[in-house]
């Protein structure tokens, strides 16, 4: 048996960051949006043949066997799969450990979400693995059980399960869906080399030794989402980690300027970066921004949000021909 679950990339429309807590994590008040770049995670019982081959995506595949589980990772041409751990530290394998009801599994990850890009690609893989494991074994655990497992795996993992547009508090793991009446068009520019999230947070602490305990609230942004007004949303976008990310990667400042000069309503760093995202006024507008940025950057993508959280896209009864 095998189950394939699709999970989306996230961006942070608002990322308010407070002073570090005693456990080292930063209190957040954030608004996540799931956008249409996806990782597909297939989990099979180890006794069955994998349901699909990784060669269905263009980039190379890396594989490893950890304890009883085995993992292979492939990706779109712009995804640096070499940067994805294939040992027991891979977050999808940690998710299976968290969820395990017995038996070994084969895990295949097909990535569209940039690695170490500030788009929660690892969190998407973890959420997808949790859900795939649940459905593969027909456990049908309640949402609150899956969400608690997700929170133990990482701050963004609960949102990857929920998707849509949602507010995140705590360290980001306390997620509550919010009203969003827009269809938002984004242009996405990944970087060839990722940024370490802990490093960006550490740099934020250096730049803001007096950060308030309470992170900034997204009041105006919530109103813009409820009204579905792109110009108003563009004005309200806010990322407290952007200054740190741009300080570590000054070229991101040029990229944001170019996207805005190319017609975007607003450009910003996604989460801890280095991916940058550009809000456009319409689908046609996003095609223009994509064309403008493609003159200078090798990899320029378009995406729409909000989209669904982790969901099953395929189930196979391997070897019987049943689908
Ligand atoms: O929770 P997650 O494993 O995704 O966090 C990765 C790292 O990002 C943490 O180890 C921490 O350094 C930083 N982080 C933080 N505050 C948060 C979320 C993440 O400092 N709210």
Structural class: alpha+beta
**From the alpha-carbon coordinates, what is the Rg to the nearest angstrom?**
19 Å
So how many helices? 10
Helix content: 25-40%
CATH architecture of the largest domain: 2-Layer Sandwich
CATH class of the largest domain: Alpha Beta
Distance between the termini: 10 Å
Shape descriptor: globular
Number of domains: 2
| CATH topology value of the largest domain | Ribosomal Protein S5, domain 2
Mean pLDDT: 93
User: Could you tell me the number of beta strands?
Assistant: 13
Query: Biggest sheet, open or closed, and with what strands and sense?
Result: 9 strands, mixed
Question: What attributes characterize this protein structure?
Answer:
28% strand, 10 helices, single chain, binds cytidine-5'-monophosphate, 323 residues, Ribosomal Protein S5, domain 2, Alpha-Beta Plaits
Describe the 3D structure:
By secondary structure, the chain is an alpha+beta fold. The protein has 2 domains: 2-175, Ribosomal Protein S5, domain 2; 184-305, Alpha-Beta Plaits. It is 31% helix and 28% strand. The strands form 2 sheets. Strands 1, 2, 3, 4, 5, 6, 7, 9 and 13 form a 9-stranded mixed sheet that branches. Strand 4 (69-75), helix 1 and strand 5 (105-111) form a beta-alpha-beta unit. The longest helix is centred in the middle third of the chain and has 16 residues, at 121-136. Residues 51-57 have low confidence and may be disordered. The structure holds cytidine-5'-monophosphate.
């Amino acid at each position: 048996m095998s189950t394939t679950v699709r999970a989306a990339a996230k961006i942070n429309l608002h990322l308010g960051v407070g002073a570090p807590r005693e456990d080292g994590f930063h209190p957040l008040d954030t608004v996540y949006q799931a956008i249409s770049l996806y990782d597909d995670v297939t989990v099979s019982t180890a006794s069955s043949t994998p349901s699909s081959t990784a060669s269905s995506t263009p980039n190379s595949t890396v594989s490893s066997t950890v304890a009883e589980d085995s993992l292979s990772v492939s990706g779109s041409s712009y995804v640096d799969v070499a940067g994805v751990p294939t040992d027991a530290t891979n977050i999808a394998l940690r998710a299976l450990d968290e969820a395990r009801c017995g038996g070994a599994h084969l895990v295949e990850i097909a990535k569209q979400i940039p690695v170490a890009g500030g788009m929660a690609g690892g969190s998407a893989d973890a959420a997808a693995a949790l859900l795939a494991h649940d459905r593969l074994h027909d456990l049908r655990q309640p949402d609150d059980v899956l969400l608690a497992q997700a929170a133990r795996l990482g701050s963004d993992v609960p949102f990857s399960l929920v998707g849509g547009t949602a507010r995140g508090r705590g360290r980001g793991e306390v997620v509550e869906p919010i009203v969003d009446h827009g269809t938002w068009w984004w242009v996405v520019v990944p970087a060839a080399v990722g940024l370490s999230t802990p490093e960006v947070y550490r740099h934020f602490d250096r730049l803001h030794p007096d950060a308030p305990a309470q992170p900034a609230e997204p009041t105006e942004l919530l109103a813009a989402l409820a009204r579905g007004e792109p110009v108003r949303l563009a004005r309200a976008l806010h990322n407290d980690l952007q200054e740190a990310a741009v300080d570590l990667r000054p070229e991101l400042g040029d990229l944001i300027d170019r996207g805005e000069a190319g017609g975007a309503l607003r450009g910003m760093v996604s989460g801890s970066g280095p991916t940058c995202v550009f809000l456009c006024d319409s689908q046609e507008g996003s095609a223009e921004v994509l064309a403008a940025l493609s003159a200078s950057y090798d990899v320029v993508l378009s995406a729409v949000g909000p989209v669904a959280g982790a969901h099953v896209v395929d189930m196979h009864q391997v070897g019987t021909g049943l689908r």
